[in-house]
Design a protein that fits this description.
Strand order of the largest sheet: 5-4-3-6-7
Distance between the termini: 29 Å
Largest sheet: 5 strands, antiparallel
Order of helices and strands: HHEEHHHHEEEEE
Radius of gyration: 19 Å
Strand content: 15-25%
Length: 222
């Protein structure tokens, strides 16, 4: 059974109230947000472009999906109060516990879910600040009107941090990219952070053209 169908079954069984303003009203407010976040994280779906439904297996949910949802997606979803954020995260946690109770295997079965969510929540401030500074840097670069001959749009993983440079590996690219960054940005970057970036090739170096979300990697399960 796909994730949308499981969420729908959970919503019916636990009498989750409809949320008419959500993308999937029948899932209620919190699970509709979670559904949209998982779609944006890249999990498989079917249906019309303006309203796709998750067909991915619950086994496809990994730490990167949850990291994206908690750190990158939720803060940009018109959520202004920490209490609301906590309610959403508890509702998502309850969905996972429901799957556990019903012996439905999922990709986070070996993790302490509550501890994982709390750890990710604590990383929000750093990642939001880093995203903001990277966006400012891309604006500064564009003001210099660089002679860009090619661009690469990808989610990059930070593989190495040097004195004034980060070495990045794209999800869809085999090569690595060296990107110079200002001194106020580098201390906020951690190894294995995921950065949504558009890089420009000036033949002499790579420059930052556009910056999106930032989210961290979770440590492996011990």
């Amino acid at each position: 059974m796909g994730l949308y169908e499981l969420m729908r079954e959970y919503a019916v069984e636990t009498s989750v109230p409809n949320e008419p303003s959500s993308a999937t009203p029948e899932l209620g407010y919190s699970l509709s947000l979670f559904h949209t976040g998982l779609l944006e994280s890249g999990l498989s779906s079917e249906g019309p472009e303006d309203n796709p439904l998750l067909t991915a297996s619950p086994l496809d949910i990994d730490g990167a999906c949850i990291s994206y949802f908690v750190v990158a997606f939720l803060p940009f979803s018109a959520i202004s109060q920490e209490e609301e954020m906590n309610t959403i995260l508890f509702d998502v946690y309850s969905f996972f516990k429901w799957m556990d109770k019903n012996n439905i295997e999922h990709g986070l079965g070996q993790r302490n879910l509550m501890a994982m969510i709390k750890e990710l929540f604590s990383m929000q401030e750093r990642c939001l600040k880093l995203s903001h500074l990277l966006d400012n840097e891309s604006g500064r670069v564009l003001e210099t009107n660089p002679d860009v001959v090619n661009t690469v749009n990808d989610v990059f993983t930070v593989m190495k941090i040097e004195k004034n440079t980060v070495v990045l590996q794209g999800q869809n690219e085999n090569e690595s990219f060296r990107l110079g960054l200002p001194a106020d940005i580098l201390p906020l970057i951690q190894l294995h952070d995921s950065l949504e970036l558009v890089l420009g090739d000036t033949t002499n170096s790579w420059v930052l053209i556009e910056a999106g979300q930032v989210f961290p990697e979770l440590p492996p399960v011990e």
